[in-house]
Specification:
By secondary structure, the chain is mainly alpha-helical. Helix content is 38%, strand content 0%.
Length: 68
């Protein structure tokens, strides 16, 4: 398995939301905050900044488009 990417190094990472929500090792609150940011973006509102404590969890599910 590859090492997770660092969210601080990627300006706008594409995150697999379903993978985050279904990952049993990720706290439910992390998934809920991700969904809240997704809703804000869909409504055209600037989403909240990703809390530092969420970044390691979200980094596990960054979609790497460079290999496609």
């Amino acid at each position: 398995m590859n090492a997770p990417l660092n969210l601080d190094e990627i300006k706008h990472p594409l995150i697999d939301v379903w993978a985050v929500l279904l990952d049993p090792d990720i706290p439910t609150d992390v998934g809920q905050r991700l969904l809240t940011r997704q809703r804000a973006r869909r409504l055209g509102v600037t989403p909240a900044i990703v809390p530092d404590e969420d970044k390691p969890f979200l980094a596990r599910h960054i979609v790497d488009l460079s290999s496609s």
